[in-house]
Amino acid sequence: MIGVNGPARALHRQASAGKSDGEVTPGAHNGRVSEGEGPGTAGLHTAASVEPLPHPEPHRAVVLVVGVVATVAFVVLRFAVALGGHEPLPADLWWHDLMVATLGEVGIIAAWVPAIVGGTLGMIVIGILLVAVFLWKRRRWDAVTLASAIIVVVAIGAPMAAVIARVRPEDSLAESVATSFPSGHTAVATTMAVTLGLLLRRWYVWLAGGLWVLYMMWSRTYLHAHWLSDVVAGMLEGVAVATLVWSAVQAYRIRRATPSSPEAV
């Protein structure tokens, strides 16, 4: 019995050592509970990250294409405005006349709501709160994605608007500085809406985000703070930044999670 149990104990110790050296048991996927795991196994992962897995390849490819198309569309619109000497385009004048014709007290009050909430201070506060919520929920990659997208869109949009220096409508009820193209309010609103939609993956998040962006675009033109082409450019900038930043973070996560090949070791 001693001769038999000795090797058996040795094999048991080797198997235990193999697991402790990095062998992953079925059902444990980077601290996430996979489909089909029972209540007993779910309890093993309560202290682990609840961050969702990266999107599958086809989904990421679509998002990347959307980002590239939005970037190209923004560049085309930028050249169209430049070729016109930064003067309002025919569509700008038509939309501006429509906003002037429908101007009223109630509309002005309604238009100032997104203008204030979506301003620099408002977006900083909302951005910090959302990043804090993601961190609290232990979704650090989502926090990194949202924070990065906001930083990038502001870092690109503000200097660009100052360099282009397009003049706002003369009857502006808000800002008067010649930084009309692109609309910073619209760019930041779109960036946050698209990023949250990609991160949370819920149809109602997309719906609410889309309505907020349209509300912002209407607000900025109703207050005569921007031409129509300014807010369209801001929307395109926001879509481009959100999708490209999200794609970059997803690609980094997947590359980081992919084990090294034997040849690379």
Which labels suit this protein?
single chain, 265 residues, two-stranded antiparallel sheet, 10 helices, 69% helix, 2% strand, globular
Summarize the structure.
The chain is mostly helical and 265 residues long. The chain has ten helices and two strands, in the order αββααααααααα. α3 runs antiparallel to α10, α5 packs across α9 and α7 runs antiparallel to α8.
Q: Cα-atom Rg, whole angstroms?
A: 26 Å
The string of secondary-structure elements, in order, is: HEEHHHHHHHHH
Placed side by side, the strands forming the largest sheet appear as 1-2
Count of folded domains: 1
Shape: globular
Assembly type of the chains comes to single chain
**Tally the helices: what do you get?**
10
- End-to-end separation: 43 Å
Strand segment tally = 2
Give the fraction of residues assigned to helices.
Answer: 55-70%
How would you sum up this structure, described in words?
This protein has one domain (58-256). Helices cover 69% and strands 2% of the residues. It has helices at residues 2-20, 39-42, 57-83, 90-101, 105-117, 120-136, 140-164, 184-200, 203-222, 228-257; strands at residues 28-29, 32-33. It has a two-stranded antiparallel ribbon. Helix 5 packs across helix 9, helix 6 packs antiparallel against helix 7 (140-164) and helix 8 (184-200) runs antiparallel to helix 9. It is globular and about 60 Å long.
